[in-house]
Amino acid sequence: MKKPIVYNNVKKFRLLTNMTQQELADKALVHRQTIVSIENKNYSPSIVVAYAISIAFEKDIKEVFYIDEGSVT
Fold first, then answer.
1. What is the pTM for the complete model shown?
2. Rounded CA gap, 67 and 7, in Å?
3. How far from 8 is each of 22, 24, CA to CA, in Å?
4. What 8-state DSSP symbol labels residue 34?
5. pLDDT, the chain, mean
């Protein structure tokens, strides 16, 4: 079984809400560099961080983070 690839819409929602990386980091209780790494797809956050980011955007977690079903076999 391949490791699933987690994709995200963090940058998209952050820009739509006119939020800086630092503002999002403050709301999600993480470092700004964590947001940078998530947006650059260098880091898949824990479920707790993903949930906190989704709450900051007032979005369902599935709208912000998703798995490409074709990447899981």
1. 0.88
2. 6
3. 18, 15
4. H
5. 93
